Amino acid sequence: MRKYLILPALLVATGAVTALISFRQAKTSAGTPQGHDHHADAVQTSGGREPTHGCVFKTVYEGEGLDTAFVIPTPDHVLRSEQRGLQWLVRAQAPNGGFGSGTHARQDIMDPHAVNTDPATTAMVAMAMMRLGSTLDRGAHAEPLKRATTYILEQVEQSPKNAVNITALTGTQIQTKLGVNIDVALTAQFLSNLLARIGEQHGSYLRAKRALNTCVGMIQRAQNSDGSVQGDGWAGVLQSSFAASALESARGVGAEVDEEALRLARDYQRSNFDANTGTVATERAAGVTLYAVSSSTRNSAAQAREVSERVERAKKEGKVDRDAQVDSKTLEAVGYTPAEAEKMNAAYQVYNAAKQRAQDERVITGFGNNGGEEFLSFLQTGESLVIARDQGWKNWYGQTTKRLVDIQNQDGSWNGHHCITSPVFCTATSLLILSVNNDIEHLLAQGAVKYK
Questions:
Q1: pTM score > 0.85 for this model?
Q2: Which residues of 45-82 are buried (b: 16+ CB within 10 A; e: fewer)?
Q3: How far apart are CA 188 and CA 20, in angstroms?
Q4: 431 in Cβ contact with 413 (< 8 Å)
Q5: pLDDT, tens digit, for every residue of 249-287?
Q6: Distance between CA atoms of residues 75 and 264, nearest Å
Q7: 50 by DSSP, 3-state: which?
Q8: Which of 16, 157, 178, 234 could form a disulfide with 305 if both were Cys (CB 3.0 to 4.6 A apart)?
Q9: Cα-atom radius of gyration of the chain, to the nearest Å?
Q10: Which parts of 10-141 fold into alpha helices (H)?
Q11: What angle do CA 41, 47, 51 make, to 5 degrees?
């Protein structure tokens, strides 16, 4: 294994998450997409750039607005890095509209036009384009995004009935390292994000919704009895984590998600970490603690946030003592049934213990260099912090973006140095990390507690 630059420890704080790389977009009464190109609509400030209109931080939940201190303007050096990376990605698009990562057998091939296109890589690139401000109808890269979307929809529509994946390709870098059914999980996530942005009146809405329901059916058919997904790769826990997140995100846009399948998926991720002993199950994480703890954190975090907010609300209302600790007894006093209290307390404890492990420098440095799996784990962390309404996310953002900018290649791309080496996949994931602050409102809404 060759060793290159190290991405140093990323500082992680509490977070809560429901869906990988997810964001929601408010619709106008006419259903007009409300995409925002933060590069085009920015003004200079002393701390960098911040949007002047478009993605306005509005209501998050229960009539409560977003604290503006939570918002981080994108620094100039990050904006320049994003632009360079996005320009490189656009040039990497194939004539059929897709993007490719290449095969596990030829990880040395770095030319994006010398590999076959695949749905998983295309979905990651398309999500990066959306997060960086483009929609199917507007934005600097609307046309490449539209072509990528058409490619993805055709892959889904051409898949055999009762299949568990949307491509006949085998042996891609992404499949070998994450799992043979990773394409459908990442495609489902992209389609959920797309539906949240375009609105029901858009001409592509029904086609995308049908495709999403097809993907959801495949994910659920591929689910094992323990909640994991069939066809583990080298780090199969990540495939299962993304599948769980995809189901949650799909449910949020009205897809046909089986609640029992979602519960099993969450429980499986939570079971990989023992909050009492700190033991991490890494058998399906390639022996890498980072992959396991980031997955456990991500899929228990939404419930952990609910617990935190409901307990704080109960304290203000005098239902529990101001100094009450979070445990099953406290949660019953808050209003959970005994069974619910046990389950929610377990999620809360797993989340808070796992996120401590996730910020350990020895855990994050892992192999001593970065493959695509590391970038994906860092992305899960960043989104978790935002959804958690955790002020600690600002420290994470500053340190992480600086380090990503520092290891960017001269041509604007990023690539992995073990396992997933694909510059297309790694560049798309890096851009999603750098631009996570573009989706603060949407990510917060993912974990918002819905009070009766």
A1: no
A2: eeeebbbeeebeeeebeeeeebeeebebbbbeebbebb
A3: 11
A4: no
A5: 898 899 999 999 988 887 776 665 555 555 444 444 444
A6: 40
A7: strand
A8: 16
A9: 20
A10: 76-91, 119-131
A11: 20
236 membership: H or E segment, kind and range? helix 236-252
> Which amino acid, one-letter code, is at 150?
T
Span 42-298+370-446: which CATH code? 1.50.10
- The continuous run of DSSP H or E covering 259 comes out as helix 259-271
Distance, CA of 22 to CA of 5 (rounded, Å) = 29
CB 108 within 8 A of CB 97: no
Query: Are 407 and 7 in contact, with CB atoms under 8 Å apart?
Result: yes
Contacts for 299 with CB less than 8 Å, ≥ 6 apart: 17, 241, 244, 245, 265, 266, 269, 270
In 3D, which of 182, 152, 189 has the Cα closest to residue 164?
A: 182
* Cα distance between residue 449 and residue 415, in whole Å: 38
Domain coordinates in residue numbering, the chain? 42-298+370-446
- For residue 448 the two structure tokens come to 């918002």
Residue 160 CA to residue 258 CA, distance in Å, equals 21
Token pair 């790694």 in the structure block, residue = 426
The maximal CA–CA distance of the chain, rounded, in angstroms, is 64
C-alpha dihedral (218, 220, 226, 227), degrees to nearest 10: 100
Q: Both tokens of residue 414?
A: 């990023």
Phi, psi of 51 (to 5 degrees): -65, 145
Residue-wise pLDDT for 33-42, tens only, equals 333 344 444 3
- Name the token pair of 160: 């055999």
The token duo for 302 is 């939404």
Tokens, residue 193? 């994000």
Alpha helices for 317-337 (secondary structure H): 328-334
